[in-house]
Design a protein that fits this description.
By secondary structure, this protein is mainly α. Helices cover 48% and strands 0% of the residues. The chain has three helices and no strands. The longest helix is centred in the N-terminal third of the chain and has 19 residues.
Length: 65
């Protein structure tokens, strides 16, 4: 179990080094792993909307009771 955590730690450190050298953005590194229902990654969706989040009214779970 320690080995898998160590691999994850090393991977995150390597990704953060890329961010620090401005080769990639933080969003590019971590958001490609979250995929929406239509197969688009969260990064692709946010990039298309200039990283603006949708209003709370678009989400039925966000309604006030």
């Amino acid at each position: 179990m320690r080995v898998s955590w160590r691999i994850l730690k090393d991977w995150v450190e390597a990704q953060m080094a890329l961010v620090e050298t401005h080769m990639v953005t933080l969003e590019q590194v971590f958001l490609p792993y979250a995929v929406t229902d239509d197969g688009q990654t969260i990064y692709e969706r946010l990039k298309r909307s200039d990283f603006l989040l949708p209003s709370g009214g678009d989400n039925p779970a966000a309604t006030n009771n």
